[in-house]
Specification:
With about 130 residues, this protein is of the alpha+beta class. Helix content is about 20%, strand content about 45%. It is built from one helix and seven strands; from the N terminus they run ββββββαβ. It is globular.
């Protein structure tokens, strides 16, 4: 997979892109649209190949204790008629759930390493 970036990481307008010949990965990009410090990052995901689609998503953080932060990852997709008829036979949770869960677990590992917290429960993965 070929990755690309444009702009300044962690700032509104930053774009992270990817390109692959594999249909399961495809080609697309995501752009940070809004940042509410210590609360939420809103971004737009644009899929280009194998199909075109634009979706809104966000990561929300909630401090639970001094050493625990709950992270919620929300992804809103839209599929117009007649393509949406495929949703009747598709398991979107099965298709995306594993990747979203893996992303949250990677975030947990990276964040805990960055802040050097010796506990394993700094971020609760839901």
């Amino acid at each position: 997979m070929k990755k690309s970036i444009r702009g300044t990481d962690a700032e509104v307008g930053f774009i992270s892109g990817w390109e692959s010949t594999s249909d399961s990965v495809g080609t697309g990009e995501q752009e940070i649209k809004k940042i509410t410090p210590n609360e939420r990052i809103d971004y737009e995901v644009r899929f280009i190949k194998p199909f075109e689609s634009t979706s809104e998503a966000y990561l929300k953080t909630e401090i639970e204790t001094e050493h625990t932060t709950k992270v919620t990852w929300v992804f809103h997709g839209n599929m117009p008629y007649p393509s949406n008829l495929m949703l009747l036979t598709m398991d979107m949770e099965g298709m995306l759930g594993k990747d979203l869960q893996g992303g949250l677990e990677n975030l947990k590992t990276l964040f805990e390493a960055q802040v050097a917290i010796p506990t394993n429960d700094f971020i609760k993965v839901n």
